[in-house]
Automatic annotation (TrEMBL):
Descriptive protein name: Geranylgeranyl transferase type-2 subunit beta
Organism whose genome encodes this protein: Danionella cerebrum
Domain of life according to the entry: Eukaryota
Gene3D superfamilies recorded: 1.50.10.20
Upper classification of the organism: Eukaryota, Metazoa, Chordata, Craniata, Vertebrata
Function: Catalyzes the transfer of a geranylgeranyl moiety from geranylgeranyl diphosphate to both cysteines of proteins with the C-terminal sequence -XXCC, -XCXC and -CCXX.
Cofactor: Zn(2+)
Start and end residues of each Prenyltransferase alpha-alpha toroid domain: 22-230
Keywords: Metal-binding, Prenyltransferase, Repeat, Transferase, Zinc
Enzyme Commission number(s) from the entry: 2.5.1.60
Length: 240
């Protein structure tokens, strides 16, 4: 453990014999094999986020130049089987439609240049119907989550959406998941991305936010998502 100004820092100690280069072949082999054993306990437990998991895996494979190793036709058919009559797409076959998994599905199809494999017009209507009065978006018909979606800019109330995102900005320059919530790297990633797409990034206090992000780095070099939390690779992606 490390201490900074009397506060314990939750960091890790990197072993001297740890790899100092990225083992791309091993990463690619692992991802390519994932899901091949569909009866595995771990595979079954991850069904609730299957669509997003496929997106994450395909993105990594694409970055490593290994996308051709994935079964394109099988993945597209899986996505088509997850679309509901309302236009929304679920995490897996038989799961309720949700905005997050609808987004992941569209991102996958965009990667494969196959967006027209699904009913795009129904997807647009589904997303449009989830926008709330305050400009935010519910994740599903029950409104359990709040998300921001700007993939189809001409059918949503953009000014209200921008207003909502800005209302989530905190005194420290970061963003929370809703007004008054604690700043978090993941939320900052989403909100600044949203403001960039909508041409409103100038409304962010860049210096203040920059300092907040710099303070997330720990002595080991890793990054945490918020103060006094452990480091993680997901936070590294969000902040870089």
């Amino acid at each position: 453990m490390f201490y900074f100004q009397g506060t314990q820092v939750k960091d890790v100690t990197i072993k001297a014999d740890a790899p100092n280069s990225l083992l791309l072949d091993k990463h690619a082999d692992y991802i390519a094999a994932y899901g091949s054993k569909k009866d595995d306990y771990e595979y079954t437990l991850s069904e609730y986020l299957r669509m997003s998991g496929i997106y994450w895996g395909l993105t990594v494979m694409d970055l490593m130049g290994q996308l051709s190793r994935m079964n394109r036709d099988e993945i597209i058919e899986f996505i088509k089987s997850c679309q509901h009559d309302c236009g929304g797409i679920g995490a897996s076959i038989g799961h309720d439609p949700h905005l997050l998994y609808t987004l992941s599905a569209v991102q996958i199809l965009s990667l494969y240049d196959s967006v027209n494999s699904i009913d795009v017009d129904k997807v647009v209507e589904y997303v449009k119907g989830l926008q709330q009065e305050d400009g935010s978006f519910a994740g599903d018909k029950w409104g359990t989550f709040s998300y921001f979606y700007v993939g189809k800019l001409d059918v949503i109330k953009m000014e209200k959406a921008v207003e909502f995102v800005l209302s989530c900005m905190n005194f420290d320059g970061g963003f929370g998941c809703r007004p008054g919530s604690e700043s978090h790297a993941g939320q900052i990633y989403c909100c600044t991305g949203f403001l960039s797409v909508t041409g409103q990034l100038h409304q962010v206090n860049a210096d203040l936010l920059g300092w907040w992000l710099c303070e997330r780095q720990l002595p080991s070099g890793g990054l945490n998502g918020r103060p006094e939390k452990v480091l993680g690779s997901l936070h590294l992606k969000a902040m870089v």
